[in-house]
Amino acid sequence: MDYRNLGASGLKVPVLSFGAGTFGGSGPLFSAWGTTDATEARRLIDICFEAGLNLFDTADVYSAGASEEVLGQAIRGRRDAVLISTKTALPMGDGPADWGASRSRLIKSVDAALHRLGTDYIDLLQLHAFDASTPIEETLSTLDGLVKAGKVRYVGASNFAGWELMKSLAVSERHSYARPVAHQVYYSLAGRDYEWELMPLGADQNVGALVWSPLAWGRLTGKIRRGHPLPETSRLHETASFGPPVDDEKLFDIVDVLDEIAAETGKGVPQIAINWLLSRPTVASVIIGARNEAQLRQNLGAVGWMLSKEQIEKLDKVSAVAAPYPYFPYRRQEGFARLNPPLV
């Protein structure tokens, strides 16, 4: 397992990390992801350790805190061997104090997460979404205080728009607050919007990307193909409306090329899709998920080898989409591209 620095920090993270959204699954979304209990989670974490994976990502909103609880139980007695990433800001209830990134909510949320995780510090705390109702100075000063108190080691964001992340970086720099070093983002062969603005921002400001849903909400597993119905066991039957939109015909074209490369390399379709992401600028770690040992071992097989330049170019071409304004002239017109060449 290779390790990369997380953005402008000294924190070294594995190129693959484990998403604990399947732990303790409950509710219409998370129960479809998985219902892993502490015993099963401990076994999956053992396998991760064997592969050199030590970063585990969760959130307070995952199964109303049950994911954090199961993760905490599964790592009991070996806290120093793991990195914990969790997120907060999304609603945990209907009350006015149950959502957002205000000072009171953040302090309360971090204390609750620490209790559920059974630890006294969080390695990486990310704002799960931008809270436009709270002054960013209040949010960032509170995060800085949590870092100084030793409850949080590093801070980051998730699902921010470009201006929201840049504003956060500017305010943190102006006031010498703890600076966001990570941005957890959706990015996959079937969803490359991250490249328009957030990737250049991450490269310019040295913010590392933690990629969620690298298999496009389960669509790049190799089980979904043109002319075939969804497998009966696919979680997309229950969860498709929660995930990012995907153009089906574009998806099938991508899967066709993944199949070609799978035949050339002997690797699985999910392994190729994840390996492609690891070659992209700013990507620090790709978050993999697994409901069982077989899925986990397959996803761990995405590292330790490299796609050829020609294979990457095939995947780039088949997954490319037209850039929206104001990005398209920088992709299509030489004069614009000369001033601001694309990263990929």
UniProtKB/TrEMBL annotation:
This protein's UniProt keywords: Oxidoreductase
Gene Ontology molecular function terms on file: oxidoreductase activity
All residue ranges annotated as the NADP-dependent oxidoreductase domain in the record: 17-319
GO cellular component, one term: cytosol
CDD domains: AKR_PsAKR
Organism placement in taxonomy: Bacteria, Pseudomonadati, Pseudomonadota, Alphaproteobacteria, Hyphomicrobiales
SUPFAM superfamilies in the record: NAD(P)-linked oxidoreductase
Source organism superkingdom: Bacteria
Entries under InterPro entries matching the protein: AKR_Detox_Biosynth, NAD(P)_OxRdtase_dom_sf, NADP_OxRdtase_dom
Keyword Chloroplast: no
Official protein name in the record: Oxidoreductase
